[in-house]
Amino acid sequence: MNIFEKIVNREIPAVIVYEDEHTLAFMDIGPIIKGHTLVIPKVCYDPVTETPDEVLAGLIRICKRIAAAQIRGLGADGVNIIQNNGAAAGQEVPHLHFHVIPRFEGDGHRWNWAAKKYDNPAEMEKLAEKIRQGLNG
Ligand code: 5GP
Predict the structure, then answer these.
(1) What global pTM score does this model have?
(2) Pairing state between β 78-82 and 23-27
(3) Among 19, 31, 34, 87, which residue has the fewest nearby CB atoms (within 10 Å)?
(4) How far is C-alpha 25 from the geometric centre of its chain's CA atoms?
């Protein structure tokens, strides 16, 4: 059983901000910015590509509500919604989760968003074509 399933089952504590039949939202123990909230399905799905569409639809609705609550309740100026899949993408807990992170003007956090360049337009087109082909898989 993963750590988030233990939280769902109340085997380990968490500070819960929202719960319904299918979804739990609770405070991340290691916030990027204080107020950082995790939104998870109660049933473990992982990764996003193996998660039923209706589960994802339900989760993103709750992410929207949590984001709005961070703006209203915390006075956030913006919100990041992030979802990691796989160790290569920085995922640590193998249970689908969305990070909903309140952002404040001047909060000092900077993503390491180091934009790169394609070697040439053909390289971008070649990769786009592989993705298009992947859509048919
Ligand atoms: P990931 O890197 O998998 O996308 O994110 C996992 C998140 O879960 C991290 O932000 C981490 O701080 C959080 N986390 C890990 N263990 C616990 C825990 O026991 N309780 C809570 N509330 N958050 C946790």
Answers:
(1) 0.97
(2) unpaired
(3) 87
(4) 11
Strands 37-41, 23-27: pairing is antiparallel
Q: What is the DSSP letter of 13?
A: -
pLDDT given at position 53: 97
Mean pLDDT, residues 78-82: 98
Instruction: Supply the residues annotated as catalytic.
Output: 97
Residue (of 3, 72, 11, 73) closest to 38 by Cα position: 3
Give me the residue spans of the domains in the chain: 3-110
**Percent above pLDDT 90 for the chain:** 97
Query: How many whole angstroms from 103 Cα to the centroid of ligand 1?
Result: 18
Among protein residues, the one with the nearest Cα to ligand 1's atom 17 is 29
CATH classification code of 3-110: 3.30.428.10
| Total length of the chain | 137
Q: d(Cα 123, Cα 125) in Å, to the nearest integer?
A: 5
Look up residue 74 and give its two tokens: 């915390």
